[in-house]
Amino acid sequence: MGRATSKHVIFSQQERENQIAMPSVFMYSTITSKLRKFEVKVLQQSSLNHKQVERSPGILKLAKIAPNQEESLYYDSNSSWVYELLTELCENIDFEGRESERDPFIRTHDLKLNLFLNRKISNDLNDHIVITGDIDATFSLPCIRCLQPVREALALKVNSCSLSEEMQERPEFQEADTVFALGEERDLYFYHKREIDLKEMVHEYLYLNLPPLPLHDPSCKGLCLKCGANLNTTLCKHVKHLQ
Ligand SMILES: [Zn+2]
Ligand SMILES: [Zn+2]
After folding, report:
1. Which ligand has its closest atom nearest to the C-alpha of 233?
2. Which of 98, 112, 194, 208 gives the lowest tally of CB atoms within 10 Å of its CB?
């Protein structure tokens, strides 16, 4: 894939500096790294639970898509790979070790994909797939000041075209983010070994559009720098000193 997939691209330099100035950032990253470990376990469990429903990890085989006819696909979090994406979106929510709350919490959110596929074969783009449609996601991110969950919703338009990996070598595509296909400029992707990785594409659409600075309330008071008390709900002995 040609474009940056890193989460970090969503922060501008100014936003980064703002974050560093916030008291909760250190705690946030500590909690995040702690969560990562059991996250892996939860993910493995959830894939097991959903195996009966859906075996495909979000991979489409090119050979199964007939050229020159539109095909529509619908996925939601009943597909294991979609559930994994949803879990990842909510991964920084702190359950304070109460792992049993994680899955019920994630299931109060959803990720729905309504996609239309058009496989075309042309002289300039060879065998390519145009994918359009909608991604609708509800998920939760931690408030950047106090870490409590903030419910977010994203409605994204998908407008992409996947070319074969051999096309990646061509000079015109080496630095390109978009390609003109089926009469429109579209986000450029590459498929590999005649398989289209839908999960990777949806992941990128989501992470390039995440709200960078979620706040549970614009006037959130955050956490005490010294003792970590949530200043929205409690007063600690350091507060007078700070204000
Ligand atoms: Zn808050
Ligand atoms: Zn305090």
Report:
1. 1
2. 98
Ligand 1 center to 32 CA (angstroms): 16
Contacts of 12 by beta carbon, 8 Å cutoff, 6+ apart: 212
Residue 178 CB neighbours (<10 A): 15
Residue whose structure tokens are 């008071």: 221
Smallest-distance ligand from the CA of 227 = 2
Q: Could you say which ligand is closest to the alpha carbon of residue 142? A: 1
How far is residue 29 from each of residues 23, 92, 97, 171, 209, measured CA to CA in Å? Answer: 11, 9, 16, 40, 21
Asked whether the beta carbons of 151 and 115 are under 8 A apart, the reply is no
pTM of the model: 0.75
Q: Cα(216) to centroid of ligand 1, in Å?
A: 4
Q: How confident is the model at residue 84 (pLDDT cuts 50, 70, 90)?
A: very high
Average pLDDT over the chain, rounded to whole? 82
Query: Residue 214 Cα, ligand 1 centroid: separation in angstroms?
Result: 8
pLDDT digits (tens, 9 = 90+) for 100-110: 999 999 999 99
Report the separation in Å between the CA atom of 136 and the middle of ligand 1, taken as the mean of its atom positions.
24
